[in-house]
Structure formats: structure tokens, C-alpha cells
Target: Proline--tRNA ligase
Amino acid sequence: MRQSKLLMSTLREVPAEAEARSHQWMLRGGYIRQAASGIYSFLPLGYKVLRKIECIIREEMDAAGAQELHMPAMQPAELWKASGRYELYGPELMRMHDRHEREFALGPTHEEVVVSIARQEISSYRQLPVNVYQIQTKFRDERRPRFGLLRGREFLMKDAYSFDRDWEGLDVVYRQMFAAYERIFQRMGLEFRAVEADSGAIGGQGETHEFMALAEIGEDTVVSCSACSYAANLERAGFRVKACASDAKADPEQHAEEAALEPEQVYTPGIKTITELADFLVVPPVKIIKTLIYEADGQLVAVLVRGDREVNEVKVKNDLQAEHVALASPETVLAVTGAEMGFAGPAGLVLPILADKEVAEMTAAVAGANLLDTHVRGIVPGIHFSLEQTGDFRNAEPGDKCLLCGSELEFHRGIELGHVFKLGTKYSAALDATFVDQDGQQKPFVMGCYGIGVSRVMAAVAEQSITEERLIWPLSIAPFHVHIIPISMKDDAQRELSEQLYVQMTQAGIDVLLDDREERAGVKFKDADLAGAPMVIIVGRGAGDQEVEWLGREGVKESITSIEALERAVLAVKGLAAMAPERK
Model:
């Protein structure tokens, strides 16, 4: 490609609305342009990257035995109502009516549609297993689109769906897809972790894993062991519970003495936060019980954690087997506790109580009194309130130990790239999608679901590929493998050598960008930093002697011959071809 013909409008200033580095550089480099909040156009440079990402995904999906199809973005609402997700998905589901007042949804995902296809097309066990995928635009009405392509309302996604006779068959496909995802992200040069995860709105009846790109801008927290292979997202992360030494019930006599004492009410005017309470009463947060009132599918429940901990709402939801869990409103808290938020406590509370394991080990704790401006000292779990429902209801935190080996847990920020689910019969049973098995019985399909956020992957790779001065794409998805920059197109020797290299590399199957513009060298170099080619060839004063400057990913310039530059580029691109899977 000749740069004089490329639609690449670069920006020198960082756009004010762009928070993430990937967003800033892709706007500055002319990869994307915003059409509306959370909705972007991909300009030629950005679309080249996107297509190369798609190519890698297609190669690995095909090699894993998946077949590509294409499903409609506009989906009949009755399918979503039949699966039970129409109301569950909430306001993120974009809904619409046609001129005949028939209701539709713009698909954020395609479980319902693909099950309706399987219901029509697959009737016998002899047709199984089947694994299909598509790469298609999806829609979610995000409350707060942010970070450019990382959280948008319209985005490109690869979604795959497998259909099997039984769980054993699903296990095989799940492992195949898991391995395919690892190859996909490795080929894109990403630093990532596969972590145990929660199934969220997709649901399911088996294990699920997320693939996370490690990046400080990530909205998710990856919890991993410093010694073994354990890794999970924060929503799912488990740990070994170790009670605080000051609260452990290690001394039965002391515990009995404390239990015999009557709790003492303390006037705490205007004290609502744990920090304020700890300072006011001169007690550490580990001696305080935090009581939060939640609404779970219309039912109220109290969740107790230690004062220095945070409630994990996903763990609460899973323990209650609820669809929706959210903090109760201030009005509801006042109605059920008799006091404003900040003064709720477990003693005398007429609600189901979910107590975190650490709370169960506390003695002589401080808690809310269910009275305005009042707390209580000397609350003893199991004595002054029930401990019928205990469990792990808090987030993992620094200092916690690995559930498997007991080593220290580490915490990193991450960007979710993809998610693989074992759905089981959740959707096939709801939509009456069955096949005739070998025994002649009608049985629901056992399903898996496998998604990759294609446009999000592009942003994640960019986030990891930005140095202080340059955006350097991995060779596998770079818009151009090589960027040839003659210092002056008016210089005959420079122009001729640049043209020669351009022709030779193009004929060798290398994606080349030739900066044939009559611009100042500084402008060319600034634009090259944004164009992101991992191999840059600068043609300057040594052109007459067939010498060029080579700039690779490491950022070190070398003076080499044009022949060696050609050989290096050819070798690098041949290495890419070797990474692609063989067709079966």
C-alpha cells in the first residue's frame, strides 16, 4: 500500500474523551472514529487489524472442527421469552418493534437463535456432535460505554455453540475449544490467563472459564496463585479462610465469658461507615460486623462480613440460586431494620442471615443496633444471632492464601477476551430442542457456548503493545508487516531503493506500507509510530550503497543492507505461516 493513497488521518493531540491508552492511540492513528457513544466506525487501518484477528480466529475454529454460519442480528422476542432471558437480561437488551408491532431484540448473543436452528436441523444422535460459529456484530445497551472498544454498545464478536448427546461429549469439545482459545491468543502475542469464572447472564450447568489479557486498564480482577496453576476472576476466587488471631475462638473459657455478657448499646451519632465507627470506638475493623441488606429475586436477606471485607455479590447470588441480587434501597432498609443505612445489625433481625465464615469465628464484636445513631458492643455470633447459613461471601484480598496449595495469592487487572461455558440443557430444555438418541428416546441437546470479543481483542492487544513512544502491533495482526520510509522521495537513490524493496516484499507476500508522501521526515516518523508496523525500514543517505536503517520491535536501529532487510522480513512472515494450523 502506498501511504499517499491510504485513508489515514492522524491526530497529534490526545482526544479529551479517551481514557484508555488503546483508545487514545487508535483515535490518533486513524484506526477508529466515534459515531455515537459506544459506537465506532473502523477506518481502513483499523479494519485491516480487525480482519487479521478474524482470520486467526477462523483458522483455529475451523481446525477445531467448528463450522461457520451466519445468524440474524434481529431476533424474535418470543425466543428470548421462551428461554426466560427476556426479563432477566434487563435494560442492556435492545428491544424494538416492526411496523406490524411484532417485538424483536438486537442480539447481544445468539443462544436462542442457534437452538431454534438445531431444533429444526438436527433430529438424530447420528448427526451429533455439531459445533457452529459466527463472527457478527452484537448489541448491548451499556449504561456507561467507556474505554473505546473495550466497552461499547455495538461490537464484533465470535460466538460458537456445540451440541452433543451427553456430558462426556461436551467435555471433549470444551477441551478442544479451550485449547483453540489458547492458540488464538498466543498467536496474537497476548499476555493472558485462563481463569475460573462465573457464568453470569449466559447461565449454564457446568464449569466456565474466562480468558483475561493482563492490563492495568482492565475492569476485572484476576486472582492467581504465586506458586501453582490456580487462577480465577474476583467474582469466583476462593481462598483458605484464616481467622484473625484477635477474633479466633481459641479460648473456650474466654468465649463463654464473653457470651455471658449482655451486649452494650453505644450512642454513635452520624457514624455510618466502618472507618468512622472504628475511629469513634477505637476498635479495629476486624472487630466489626458489617451488615448489608440485599434483595434476591424479591426476597430480603442480610449478608454479614467482617468490617475490613467486601461482600461478593456473585457468591451471594450463587449460594441463594437467585437470578437477581442487589442492595436493598434505603427505604427498604429503614422498613426492615427500623434504622437508616449504616446502623443495621444481625441481632434481632427478622431476616435470613448469610454469615461469612470469618464472621462465624468472631467474638465480642461491634455491630449495628437497628436503631438510629446506635451500635452494639459485645455481639457474639451463634449466641446473639443465628449461624444457620455460613459460607464464603467475601472478595479475596491481598494476604489470602491459595485454596489449592496455601501459597500467597496475587492480584492483577485484566480485560476479558473470551469466555467458554458448559451450558448443559439450560437452553435446549427451555426451547424444547431435542434429538432421538440411540435408545429411541427424545433427549435435550447438551450444549456448550464459546465467545470471543473480536473488537475488544483489538483494543486489548493495543493496550499491551504501546510503548512510551510507539504503538507496535504483533506481526500476526499488524495492519502492515513492514513500513518503508524514505527520508526524501525527491532523492533518486532513496526513491529507487524504496520502490525496489516495496516491489520485492509485495511479491514475497509481505504486507508493506510505503511512505511515498512528500512530507518532512519528522511527520513521517510520527505517523509511523501510530501506524504500528513491527518492522520499519528507513531509507536515507546510505541508499546509494544499498544500505538502510532497520527498526524492529526492540526499538534499536541497525544499519544493514537492503538484501538483509528483505531476508529478515521474508523470514519473519514465513514464521507466521508456520503458526497456522493444518487443514484436516
Q: What stands out?
A: Residues 167-187 form the longest helix (21 residues). The longest strand covers residues 409-424.
